[in-house]
Amino acid sequence: MSRKPTGPTNPRLRELIVAFERKKTRFHRRIAELLSKPTRKRIEVNVRKLEKVCKDGEVIVVPGKVLGDGKLKKRLIVYAWRYSEKAKKKIIDAGGEAHDLWELLEQGIKPRIIR
User: Fold this and answer.
1) Which of 27, 84, 96, 101 gives 91 a disulfide partner, CB atoms 3.0 to 4.6 angstroms apart?
2) What is the per-residue burial (b if ≥16 Cβ within 10 Å, else e) of 76-102?
3) How, if at all, do strands 43-46 and 112-113 pair?
4) Nearest to 8 by CA among 54, 30, 40
5) Angle in degrees, CA 17, 18, 21, rounded to 5
């Protein structure tokens, strides 16, 4: 007998997933799909990776958590589900912005997804 996947138990995350699914665009559904993954498969990105793969001034979305390992010198605008304290500080100290995914829904933009 296989177990039915239940999805995230965090009520705020569930609301966010439903909000992204309601947008009915391919971009928004992809973010909802990535956020719906089990905890052990959710995306976690270090600022080191952001420094490596992003261009200065780029707007990006991380459908998961941004962690603070590494150095960041580029000015990035980042939308993510969660941030570690160190990661948020490093993004802001580099001249960038750290936003919640809820704000992405209100903005109507489609930044590049980093996984």
Assistant:
1) 96
2) bbbbbbbbbeebbebbeebebebbebe
3) unpaired
4) 40
5) 90
